[in-house]
Amino acid sequence: MRTIVTGAAGFIGSHLCAHLLSRGDEVLGIDALTDFYEPGRKRENLARLTGQDRFTFRRGNLLDLPLEPLFADADVVYHLAGQPGVRGSWGAGFAVYLERNVLVTQRVLEAARDTALRRLVFASSSSVYGDAETYPTVESVRPAPVSPYGVTKLAAEHLCEAYRTAFGVPVVSLRLFSVYGPGQRPDMAFARLVASAFTHRPFPLYGDGTQSRDFTYVGDVVGAMRLAALSPWSGVANLGGGSEVTMNQVLSLLRLLGAPVQVGRGPRRAGDARRTAADITLAREAFGYRPATGLRAGLAAMVEAERGARMTPAV
Question: Organism's domain of life (predicted)?
Fold first, then answer.
C-alpha cells in the first residue's frame, strides 16, 4: 500500500514506519521536528528509516503543506502528529496543544474528505476518559478528560467522527493506552525509569505508586494500526495492553530485570488520571487486535536497548 505517516519521526511514528516498510508498504513520512523534546532524538529515529527502499521523508508543518495532492496518491494516512504530554498543556501552553492537536487534525480531515483514501487512522489517547466511570473501560463510557491535553484529543476525535458522518471520511480513531517500548519519548515514565536505573539518579514518582495504567507495547500498537487500516471497520476503539499494572509493580519488575530504581516520592500532579484499564473487545472483534507482548518482555527490551545505547561509543 501507499501510506503516509504524520509524526513519522516520533516514538510511535518511527516504529510505525518501520513496521509498514517491513510489510512491503511505501511510506511517506511527514514531521515538523518540533522541539517538545530534543529534535536530535527524532533525527536519530529518521536515520534508521532514511535510505531504505520505499521510504521518503518530507519536513513541514501540516497547516502549511499542500496535503491534498499528497493524500490523492495515498491508500492510507496514519495521523500521529500532535503535541503530547499532560503537564505542559496547562496555562499558556494550551495554545500550542490547540493548534497541533485540533487545528492540524481538522486540516488533515479537510484534505482527506475529497480523496479516495482507503482509511485514515487517527492516534487518539486514553486521556479522553480521565477518571473513568468503570474499569475496564469500554468505548461507550462517557469521556471526561481531566487535562487540557485530553480535551484536545477528545476534540480531535469528535472532528474525526463529524467528518466520517458528514462526508464519509473512512476514519478510525484508536485510543492508545500508555504506549511504551525502546525509543520511548524521554519525558515518559518508563523512559525516565530506565534512564534512572542506569544513571543511579532518583526517579520522581508523583503519588503513592498505587496509581495504575494499562501499558501497551509499541510493537502491538503499530501492528494494530495496520490491521485497522486493512479492515472495513470505522469508528473509535481502545488499544490497551491487556493488563493493568501499578507503578509499584513496575518498580518491582525492574528490580527483577537487574535495573533497580531509586525513588523520590512527591504528591500527585494535576491532570494525571488515577487509573486506566482498556476493554479491548471491540478492537479484537473489529480488526483482530490481540496484544502479544507482556510487560516483563516489553520492559526487558527497553532495558536492553538502554544498555546497548550506553555501551555504544560516541561518534
Answer: Bacteria
Would residue 149 show up in a list of annotated catalytic residues for this protein?
A: yes
Residue type at 210?
Answer: T
Say what the pLDDT of residue 242 is: 86
Residues 6+ positions from 133 with CB-CB distance below 8 Å: 141, 142, 144
Radius of gyration of the chain (CA): 19
In the chain, the percentage of residues whose pLDDT exceeds 70 is: 99
The pTM of the full predicted model, rounded to 2 decimals, is 0.95
Distance CA 303, CA 122 (A): 29
Catalytic residue among 97, 149, 163, 217: 149
H/E stretch holding 216: strand 216-217
How far apart are the C-alpha atoms of 301 and 101, rounded to whole Å? 30
| Alpha-carbon distance values, 308 to 172, 261, 302 (Å) | 36, 18, 10
Phi/psi at 300 (5° precision): -60, -40
pLDDT digit string, tens, across residues 79-98: 999 999 999 999 999 999 99
Query: What are the structural domains of the chain?
Result: 2-179+216-242+277-292 (3.40.50.720)
Separation between Cα atoms, residue 227 and residue 236, nearest integer Å: 14
Asked if 34 and 9 touch (Cβ cutoff 8 Å), the reply is no
Strand-pairing partners, residue 58, are 30
Residue count of the chain: 315
